[in-house]
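Lab meeting, item 3. Inverse folding demo.
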């Protein structure tokens, strides 16, 4: 058995303990322990709570000590919505949008997602991997320890498989866990758009060829659809997600981002793990989410980057009792950031969530949306020792300092995977 590690000396220890996921008032309960400590052995948490109690554990005496030196200790962030694998930035379109073109206009001209598709198809697996490795290091540097990653810039069998295999390889080659989602239904690829039956043909290709192949190779846990005007309509989305379910892939959905399509109600009916974006949801959608176990995942980075004024109605969702999560939506077109702290800042200022609510939705609730709330998302005995340490005195300062990285140390399965200074096991 490996040597144990004892983390102590935190100004605040946020455990997020208790039964996940959280709704309503419970979102504000971050399980704060003053003068708390965490004891880790073999990558797992073996004791957590008040320092005296943790130090009484038999492993504590011989443990190596890690002094948090008055910083804030909390669970590593779970980023439950990213498009990790892509070939290049779209800074050119960023400038076009600033000077007046809308996201949808750019997409109609072959920009947008299709721009990323042609670049991805041309890119080698090695080049894609190198870019993703660099991004994963950055995720860790901002306190994230698990990410979900979607395919969706390939849109043919070979390219989608290329992306999904990279999820697997990257998971094995570096520390962060990657949860894989198949998003073949991102948009209709260009080569299908010239035919009158193109959309129908592409949906058939997804259902008859891509889904069975990807499920057989066990390359994804979830199946996602971009249910939006210009992408997939409600009927197509239903068809694809139901086919995914038959292959054992749980549904997730991009819904009501730019227009209201009915995707939220579909997500609830299908028992989807999550329903993401939700800028355009109505009251009936909010009620449906509140009564369901489908997680409402909000992605305020998109609205911020696109310069949109209408954010998702987070307060209405919280008041109704929906399960909320926050994620970066890291992607080259609408949310080029890996920073969960920045997303927390946006959640606080734009979604009017409190810092405590934002942290809960970025940890335990996000873990629940990935089906991993028993393993990660809170600091509790038996869970993975996935921990972030922020160089602040008070957890509210994590979102308060926007656009700055106050993450000091990130620990994955008990191992330090990022450290800003020489703070190390002594
Ligand atoms: Zn997305």
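The presenter then showed the designed sequence:
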């Amino acid at each position: 058995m490996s040597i144990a590690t004892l983390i102590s000396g935190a100004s605040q220890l946020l455990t997020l303990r208790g039964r996940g996921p959280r709704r309503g008032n419970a979102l504000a309960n971050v399980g704060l322990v003053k003068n708390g400590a965490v004891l880790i052995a073999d990558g797992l948490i073996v004791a957590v709570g008040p320092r005296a109690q943790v130090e009484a554990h038999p492993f504590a005496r011989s443990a190596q000590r890690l002094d948090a030196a008055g910083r804030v200790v909390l669970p590593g962030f779970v980023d439950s919505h990213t498009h990790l694998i892509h070939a290049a930035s779209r800074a050119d379109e960023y400038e076009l949008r600033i000077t007046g073109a809308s996201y949808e206009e750019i997409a109609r001209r072959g920009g947008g997602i299709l721009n990323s598709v042609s670049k991805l198809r041309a890119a080698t697996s090695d080049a894609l991997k190198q870019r993703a490795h660099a991004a994963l290091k950055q995720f860790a540097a901002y306190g994230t320890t698990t990410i979900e990653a979607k395919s969706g810039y390939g849109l043919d069998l070979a390219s989608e498989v290329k992306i999904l295999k990279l999820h697997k390889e990257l998971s094995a080659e570096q520390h962060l866990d990657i949860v894989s989602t198949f998003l073949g239904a991102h948009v209709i690829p260009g080569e299908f758009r010239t035919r009158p039956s193109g959309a129908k043909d592409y949906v058939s290709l997804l259902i008859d060829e891509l889904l069975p192949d990807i499920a057989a190779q066990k390359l994804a846990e979830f199946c996602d659809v971009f249910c939006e005007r210009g992408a997939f309509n409600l009927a197509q989305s239903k068809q694809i997600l139901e086919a995914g379910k038959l292959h054992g892939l749980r549904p997730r959905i991009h819904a009501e981002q730019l227009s209201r399509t009915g995707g939220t109600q579909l997500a609830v009916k299908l028992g989807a793990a999550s329903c993401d974006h939700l800028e355009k949801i109505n009251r009936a959608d909010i009620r449906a989410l509140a009564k369901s176990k489908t997680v409402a995942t909000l992605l305020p980075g998109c609205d911020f980057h696109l310069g949109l004024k209408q954010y998702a109605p987070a307060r209405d969702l919280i008041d109704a009792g929906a399960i909320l999560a926050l994620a970066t939506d890291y992607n080259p077109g609408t949310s080029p950031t890996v920073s969960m702290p920045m997303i927390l800042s946006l959640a606080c200022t734009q979604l009017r969530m409190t810092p405590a609510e934002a942290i809960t939705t970025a940890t335990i609730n996000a873990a629940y949306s990935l089906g991993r709330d028993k393993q990660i998302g809170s600091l509790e005995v038996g869970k993975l020792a996935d921990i972030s340490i922020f160089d602040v005195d008070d957890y509210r300062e994590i979102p308060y300092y926007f656009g700055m990285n106050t993450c000091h140390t990130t620990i994955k399965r008990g191992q330090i995977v990022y450290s800003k200074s020489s703070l190390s096991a002594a």
